[in-house]
Design a protein that fits this description.
single chain; alpha+beta; 8-stranded mixed sheet; 4-stranded antiparallel sheet; 11 helices; 21% strand; disordered N terminus
């Protein structure tokens, strides 16, 4: 296993390691028995969510995408940042970023786009002053992803530089192959440690072409070309028409693996209370509302523009990160049937036409 891991880091073709479905269930059971918290896709109310696993027989293997991303494992919906309590004439303040131990967790069955999303989210929260809460959770999280053998019309990871078998962000990547077996790629020290803890469950096997087992997903646009065109499109009227269907409900932000908007709220009274960090969305009208009453993004079109520009222009320019992994969750969750892939393709087409007209006039 050591030689395999070292060669994979050097980019040399690695030996093929496999695990059967039956042994994979034993492997998952051993993770729970070791005291780690295991999260995996499971059925709830006829939909698939990442949930804590108590019985490995409940883990779902055959699915395209979960409703929500696993980002809550790094960035919870609500996070207590500090608490205060007035006792015996003294105000006691507890900084929740210090001294709290985070449980070791294993995320199983995440798609490659989810693993990229977790990596992007962690890197975003390391900008400027690193976020202790997110960093601590990432350090204790091992990501065992599953390559995509299927996809639907909302998936577009290949248009944002990823793919159904992309290993970025994963500690271990499994790819389902024939005879209920999985190709195993050990990608980091954390992944190596997890696999070697039950190495008797894994076998060496014949060399296969992994690409043959992945879903075929055509690239429909180039995120780099989109970014280049967006830089001159801030005042383009296309944002008005593109946002007409947007209800400003924020569902797209809440299911997105990368969206990181939050606000800080204080709950309590003069004697005790908490300071909380809560998910928010740039699609909400109140998100940028100033105390004076002024709102720099007063319409849904300006908020929709902010969402697209932030993901495809501002983040790449400022942080060298892309704010979209092409998972398609926003399109599946939208109650107004807005489809980001279709919107970006239309945007690309309109901006290209505008660019050509400008060139013709010159």
């Amino acid at each position: 296993m050591k030689k395999q891991y070292e060669r994979s880091l050097k980019g040399v073709k690695q030996e093929m390691t496999f695990i059967t479905r039956d042994n994979l269930l034993v492997f998952l059971r051993s993770i729970i028995d070791s005291g780690k918290e295991l999260y995996a896709p499971q059925l709830r109310a006829e939909k698939i969510f990442f949930l804590p696993v108590k019985d490995v027989s409940s883990v779902v293997f055959d699915y395209v995408q979960t409703v929500e991303s696993p980002k809550e494992l790094l960035f919870p919906k609500v996070e207590r940042m500090l608490s205060y309590h007035y006792v015996d004439g003294k105000m006691n303040v507890t900084d929740c970023s210090r001294g709290q131990k985070t449980a070791d967790r294993v995320l199983f069955g995440s798609r490659p786009c989810d693993a990229i999303g977790l990596k992007t989210l962690a890197e975003f929260f390391r900008q400027d002053i690193p976020d202790t809460f997110v960093q601590r959770r990432q350090d204790s999280l091992t990501v065992v992803s599953m390559s995509c053998a299927g996809s639907d019309e909302n998936c577009f990871c290949t248009s944002v530089g990823a793919g159904p078998g992309d290993s970025t962000g994963s500690d271990v990547l499994l790819t389902p192959v024939r005879d209920k077996r999985y190709l195993v790629e050990c990608l980091t020290e954390k992944g190596k440690f997890l696999v070697e803890s039950e190495k008797e469950l894994f076998d060496e096997g014949e060399e296969i072409n992994k690409e043959e087992y992945l879903t075929k997903l055509l690239q429909t646009f180039s995120h780099k070309e989109i970014a280049g065109k967006l830089s001159g499109a801030f005042n383009n009227p296309i944002w008005d028409e593109a946002s007409l269907r947007c209800l400003g409900c924020g569902a797209c932000a809440y299911v997105c693996p990368v969206c990181s908007c939050f606000d800080i709220q204080d709950e309590g009274n003069s004697r005790k209370g908490d300071r909380l960090r809560c998910w928010d969305s740039c699609g909400f009208a109140l998100f940028t509302l100033h105390t004076s009453g002024h709102n720099p993004r007063p319409t849904q079109s300006t908020r929709w523009r902010q969402r697209v520009m932030h993901k495809f222009s501002y983040m790449p320019e400022r942080y060298n990160l892309l704010g979209c992994v092409g998972c398609g969750r926003c399109s599946r969750a939208c109650p107004a049937d807005m489809n980001l892939k279709e919107e970006l393709n239309a945007l690309d087409h309109i901006l290209e036409e505008g660019r050509q007209r400008v060139e013709e006039r010159q």
